[in-house]
Design goal:
Number of strands of chain B: 16
Strand content of chain B: 35-45%
Strand order of the largest sheet of chain B: 4-3-7-1-2-6-5
Helix content of chain B: 10-25%
Shape of chain A: globular
Oligomer: heterodimer
Structural class of chain A: alpha/beta
Structural class of chain B: alpha/beta
Radius of gyration of chain A: 18 Å
Number of strands of chain A: 14
Number of helices of chain B: 6
Radius of gyration of chain B: 17 Å
Number of helices of chain A: 8
Largest sheet of chain B: 7 strands, antiparallel
Helix content of chain A: 25-40%
Distance between the termini of chain A: 35 Å
Distance between the termini of chain B: 34 Å
Order of helices and strands of chain B: EEHEEEEHEEHEHEEHEHEEEE
């Protein structure tokens, strides 16, 4: 019997637990040349802000061992254009969208949430509280329980769909920040955003990114993602988690589910294997069947830790 | 034509001076690719390198697509070690091609190092035009000649050390050529400093110029936004993707420096 992979995460029914990670799949048109979007749970769109953002000057990317660094700076056309163009495209195709919201103030997130209120096909909002490439990194919301709580509470007052808070692994105590998000009303958490890294060209003595530091992603960070999901799930097993971080196979996706993720997002893998998200969605069904696992809830968070 | 992701068989692999040429069997890309477009090839799965490497199409013949590259890092060194019957994972054709004049005209093609690769493909699609080809490199072994005299009416060669052709750079020969030839359009591909200098010379001479750029790309398919260049469009500067709005840009629109 084919296992049932449909999930209900924070009240959002998804036909597959595999979604795309924000910033790694656009809003779908480019990737639909390679992927049948109907095989995915949802498209998690690239982060939008109230006004268009130019993004930062190149170079914006560098390859690192089993990973890559990026510093894009949230280049996007603004939430109004996103709604009119990207969401319209997804709605026409019946593909559920999780909109990712960004900003430099609480108000920025609220403005975006208001524009996207009752905008089909948005089934949830993901608050990008952890982009490492804004002008002032000290202001990253996810570094502080108080600032995380401020954004989540303000968005919850205007949002009509469940709200996920996307957090950074670059903190001393992730559980405290996760708890602040949940106490402020977050319906779920997205774990993890990129972790800060840096690479230097030893011939020119220059950093490989124009901003010097940037977000590290890819298989290099998967163990960090697994650890973060595990810690938060141990502390708050009732909170739904969208897990992401270096997943490139169905087995990797199962690893995040065993750590406590309900849904798994495919990020950097889509860059080097455009079919990755679909292959993982289809592969997950296959490996669950092989292992005699009838449904995902039966294995979620079931890593066997001694002691 | 939409790009596709295909596992392709390598049908030939050769050294060309210091460079490597690889031909792979892929009828759909061979039929659809236009000069200036590129393919991206995946490094071996499960290794330390993740990202695809982008390569301009150097030639298409029957069902084979050919690329030329310099083995400068782990990914390209692995690719250089491929032999016939090996398989490579290819995505293509990608990007915006060069525009080709509708009326028969005089055109000048400038290629620096392995950046000359797309110029040969372009020259094969310029039948009926008067094609002059300017090739340059640091030295003879870094000069890429994929049969220049077969595709161009005339060929000018420069090397920095004088080991082939005229000693100097393509940018030394270019102003005189532009004055003498008054081409309808100038096409160029090569290192970014060369392209910047070529763009300035073309601008000063009032000649339209299209360049194909080589930028770091994580995805090559329009979603990562790492490969951007500042480009003037409708009066304002925007960061445009080399993989999608490029790799061919109007040189006058690029904001250099």
């Amino acid at each position: 019997m084919t296992p049932d992979l449909s999930v209900n995460v924070a009240g959002v029914p998804l036909r597959s637990p595999i979604v795309t990670a924000s910033g790694c799949f656009g809003s779908g048109p480019e990737m639909s040349r390679f992927v049948d979007l109907a095989t995915l749970g949802a498209v998690v769109c690239k982060t939008v802000t109230p006004k268009p953002r130019l993004g930062i000057r190149p170079p914006r990317g560098a390859e690192t061992p089993a990973g890559m660094l990026n510093a894009i700076g949230l280049q996007n056309p603004g939430v109004d254009a996103f709604r009119a163009k990207d969401l319209a495209w997804l709605a026409e195709r019946g593909v559920p969208a999780i909109a990712s919201l960004g900003g430099v103030s609480v108000e920025d997130y609220v403005v975006c949430a208001e524009v996207l209120r009752d905008a089909p096909p948005v089934v949830a909002l993901e608050l990008n509280l952890s982009c490492p490439n804004l002008e002032d990194r000290g202001l990253m919301f996810a570094l502080s329980p108080g600032r995380t709580s401020d954004v989540v509470a303000a968005v919850k007052r205007v949002a009509a769909v469940p709200v996920f808070a996307k957090l950074s692994p670059d903190v001393t105590d992730l559980v405290t920040i996760a708890r602040a998000a949940v106490d402020a009303g977050a319906d779920g958490l997205s774990l993890i955003n990129t972790t800060l890294g840096m690479a230097i060209d030893t011939r020119t003595f220059r950093p490989k990114l124009s901003t010097a530091t940037g977000g590290l992603s890819g298989p290099a960070i998967r163990p960090i993602a697994v650890r973060c999901i595990f810690e938060v799930h141990e502390a708050m097993s009732h909170v739904p988690i969208i897990g992401m971080g270096g997943v490139e196979s169905a087995s990797d996706a199962l690893e995040l589910i065993l750590a406590g993720a309900s849904v798994v997002a495919i990020g950097t893998a889509s860059f080097y294997n455009p079919r990755a998200a679909q292959e993982i969605a289809e592969g997950l069904a296959r490996i669950l069947e092989e292992r005699g696992i009838a449904d995902l809830e039966a294995v979620r968070g079931r890593v066997k830790v001694e002691g | 034509v939409n790009p596709s992701q295909v596992s392709c068989e390598v049908v030939d692999a050769a050294r060309i001076g210091e460079y490597h040429a690889l031909g792979f069997f892929e009828p759909r890309i061979a039929a659809a690719a236009q000069p200036g477009q590129f393919v991206s090839i995946a490094p071996p799965p499960g290794g330390r390198c993740l990202l695809r490497r982008p390569f301009s199409v150097a030639a298409t013949r029957q069902d084979v697509v050919e690329v030329v590259f310099d083995a400068i890092g782990t990914g390209t060194a692995w690719l250089a070690s491929r032999a016939p019957r090996d398989r490579v994972d290819v995505v293509g054709p990608l990007g915006r091609p060069f525009t080709i004049p509708e009326q028969p005209s005089s055109v000048l093609l400038v290629g620096g190092g392995y950046g000359a690769a797309p110029m040969f493909f372009l020259a094969t699609r310029l039948a009926g035009h008067r094609v002059r080809l300017l090739l340059g490199a640091a030295r003879r072994t870094r000069l890429l000649d994929l049969g220049a005299h077969g595709v161009a009416h005339s060929v000018i060669v420069t090397t920095e050390d004088g080991s082939a052709g005229v000693r100097g750079r393509v940018t030394d020969a270019l102003p005189g050529l532009l004055k003498e030839e008054r081409p309808e359009i100038l096409y160029a591909c090569g290192p970014m400093p060369m392209l910047e200098a070529v763009a300035a010379i073309a601008d000063a001479a009032g000649v339209r110029c299209e360049i194909a750029v080589e930028e770091f790309m994580a995805c090559g398919i329009g979603v990562c936004w790492t490969c951007v260049l500042p480009v003037r469009t409708n009066g304002s500067v925007r960061y445009q993707r080399s993989c999608t709005e490029g790799p061919v840009f109007d040189a006058a629109a690029v904001r250099w420096g």
